[in-house]
Amino acid sequence: MGPVSDDVFKNLASLVNGRDADTYHANDQLVFLRGIVAIDNSRLFTKGAVAKQFIKRPTVSDLYEDIYQAFKQPNVVGLSSHSVVELERQIDLMDRITKAAGEHAGIMMMLGVMKARLGGHYYHGLRAGIMFCSLLEVFDPDNKLPLRTKLLAGIIHDLGKLKVPRDILFKSDKLTAEENAIMMAHDVYTEYGLMPFDPRFPYLSKVAANHHFTSKVSTSDNPHAERAGLLMRIGDIYDALGSERDYKKAWPENKVECVMLSKKYFPNHPEEVWYLLDSFPCPIKGWGDPSQSG
To answer: What is the pLDDT of residue 289?
Structure first.
């Protein structure tokens, strides 16, 4: 694409300028992000209205600290607590992921907006992203997807939640059927938001968006993407159950194990589930207090 005028940048930036948390329209934010990534003009990150809007996008060091803090929050799954070798591998993976993200200003910009707008959902995505990459390296080391696709898909997989209205996204009570349908559509929004990246990171949008059993995203034309999507779901659901969220308390490890291995979820993948239980321990051991497990 040729030169883009500052007027275009200003029109894009006007979608979010001056909007606080109460008046901000999530759909505008996702359209804005997708639009400027699709333009893919390096000037927009250094000059004009868009650059000013996102001058505070995170650095590589900021992102590394966010990932580390994601595992240090109260009542969430943690990093390895009994294996020095596994912990060193996890730390190395965190380093590789943050460096891969830092190579693309658009990815970092999206992560910055997610941090500002998604709260705990952002930190959930970071934890799930580390677990997804760990599962890939342990259980599918020969996966042929590009390395940066594998490193980035997990931490950005909840991008589509930017389009979910805030009163639904942060609701502490049980969602209604209508609200749940809106929430569950965020994987489709993730695919939409990440499509401009696919030429650079093949299958990024499809792998990232394939983290729900209800996903309408198909990766059947590529078995490596299909397998990655499965491992994405395992990591995503494990953290959703084992960690405290806005809408639920953390479940104890035995309940997490039983549900993960039930017919509803992953009865044919016990090794993957047991690996997560061992390497990313739940904060509540045993069966916990049933009245406190959500």
So the answer is: 59
Q: pLDDT confidence of 54, banded at 50, 70, 90?
A: low
CB 153 within 8 A of CB 208: yes
Instruction: CATH number of the domain at 256, please.
Output: 1.10.3210.10
183 pLDDT tier (thresholds 50, 70, 90): confident
User: Which structural domain range is residue 169 located in?
Assistant: 56-292
Q: Are 206 and 225 in contact (CB under 8 A)?
A: yes
Whether residue 37 lies inside any domain: the answer is no
Q: How far apart are alpha carbons 65 and 53 in whole angstroms?
A: 23
Query: Closest Cα to residue 171, out of 160, 162, 158, 180?
Result: 180
**E strands present in 139-277:** none
Locate all alpha helices (DSSP H) within the chain, ordered by sequence: 6-13, 26-39, 48-53, 60-70, 84-102, 105-118, 120-139, 147-153, 166-169, 177-184, 186-194, 204-209, 223-242, 253-260, 270-279
Residue 141 has which token pair? Answer: 């080391």
pLDDT the model gives residue 3: 41
In a domain, 209, yes or no: yes
pLDDT at 16: 40
- Sorted by sequence, the CB contacts under 8 Å of residue 128 that are 6+ apart come out as 154, 157, 211, 232, 235, 236, 238, 239
Look at the chain and report how many structural domains it folds into.
Answer: 1
Inter-residue contact 113 to 160 (CB < 8 Å): no
Q: Is 283 helix (H, G, I), strand (E, B) or coil?
A: coil
**Tokens 């996702």 label which residue?**
30
- Residues 6+ away with beta carbon under 8 Å from 263: none
**Residue 161 domain flag:** yes
Rounded to whole angstroms, how far apart are CA atoms 101 and 109? Answer: 10
Burial of 200 (0-12, 13-18, 19+ CB in 10 A): middle
- Predicted TM-score (pTM) above 0.90: no
Residue 23 inside a domain? The answer is no
